Every structure is written in structure tokens, then in C-alpha cells.
Amino acid sequence: MKSMGIRLAYAPEALAPLHEGICESPDIDREVIVGGQAVDGVETITSFVYGQPEAYEALLCALGTVLEYDITPSDDGFFLYLRRELGPDGLSLLDALAQETVVVVPPIEIRSDRTIRLTVVGHSSALTAVVEEVPDGIGLDVRWVSQEIAVAGAAVSDRQAAALQAAWDVGFYEIPRKGGIEAVAAELECAVSTASELVRRGEATAVERVLDSGP
User: Fold this and answer.
1) Are the C-beta atoms of residues 169 and 207 closer than 8 Å to each other?
2) Staple 192 to which of 23, 52, 65, 185, CB 3.0 to 4.6 Å?
3) Would you tell me how many other CB atoms lie within 10 Å of the CB of residue 173?
4) Nearest to 5 by CA among 146, 143, 108
């Protein structure tokens, strides 16, 4: 059994309406689906969305397929519970890449750059079929392959990545340090407290991924 991390890149015309809304909204960075299922044409998911609840709720209200949802605000975003109809031609994202012996494993990261990142687990031949049978309008890149069952960890968000890049640019990580957190905030055009939080969260996520990957 193998696991494979993949990146799906969608052409504009291939985007689902909700993903398109995430890409177009300046107030939503990304959504990370942590679990879900599809039963009798209804998809139920739980996720964490990095962004403003009001902006995402407006997207949900514009869809005629939403049956119910619940939003719980948190730091950097909010938790989401969502049930929606898939429609006669709809297909759950959790099942979209399924082969007979392949499982799509959360977290599934829906990003504002028209990409989705996820992990699939299965036999080698079935994983090869996943790569070869991607629908039109979608590009697939294999990010990593493991001989063991593995799951991708949380990724640094776009805002955190921008903060880390700004910190690098102003010399925040040089020894001795050339620019402090105030310089990072000026580069990002945000409050010092906001810049500090973004840098710390980005650093924590990046270090976690390095430690999890082993030497």
C-alpha cells in the first residue's frame, strides 16, 4: 500500500461555484476539509476556513444546493459544518478520484489559487490510474509518494507565507537581525500585532512539517 500527495490545478471553467467564490474573494484565503461523506446525493463536510465568515456565508447563500450550515468563529477563520445537495450530475470531492482500491484522505486543502491539495492511499496500480484519468480542465502534479500510509500536514496559509517572505526580505532572520517585526508589519501594511501573529503561526506550521518529515 502506498500514499501519494497530489496537487490539482483547475482551469477557470472547471472550477466548482464554491471554489470559484473562494478564488475571487479577497476575504477568503483557503478552506481545509477535515472530514465528510456523501450519502444519497447529499454531501456533508466539516472544515476550517481561513477567512471572514461573512464573505463565505455570502457564497453559501448564493448557492441553491445548500441544505444547512453552521459557522463557529475562531482565530484566523472559522469552523464550518455544511450539508448540500450534489445534484443529478454532482460528484463529491471525497469520491471524485476514487478507484476501487483508492481512498481520498483528508485534510483536503482548497486554495484560492485554483488548486486543491490532498492525499490518496491505495495500491500502486490504482494510484497510477488516478494520475492517468484526471478529467479535462484539471492538471495533476504528484508532490510526494510514500511507501507507507502517510497524511499531509497543515500547510502554511497564503497570508502566513507572505509574512514569512516579508520577514526574510527585511532581514528578520539574518544574524544579527537587520529588521524587526515593525519592519515586517510595514512591509505587509498591517498592525505589528497582526504581523507578529502571522509570522509565529507560519513558523510553527513550517517547523512542524520539517519535524514530521524526519531527517
Assistant:
1) no
2) 185
3) 14
4) 143
Q: What are phi and psi of 84, to 5 degrees?
A: -150, 150
- β-partners of residue 103 are 121
Please give the average per-residue pLDDT across 185-206, as a whole number.
86
| Number of alpha carbons in the 13 Å side-chain half-sphere of residue 182 | 1
This prediction's pTM: 0.68
According to DSSP, the residues that pair with 25 across neighbouring strands are: none
Please, which residues have CB within 8 angstroms of residue 172's CB and are 6 or more apart in sequence? 178, 179, 180, 181, 183, 184, 199
Q: Residue 52: which of 68, 76, 33 has the closest Cα? A: 76
* Burial class of residue 78, CB neighbours in 10 A (0-12, 13-18, 19+): buried
Give the model's pLDDT for residue 186. Answer: 93
CB distance 148 to 173 below 8 Å: no
Calculate the dihedral angle through the C-alpha atoms of 198, 45, 105, 22, rounding to the nearest 10 degrees. Answer: -50
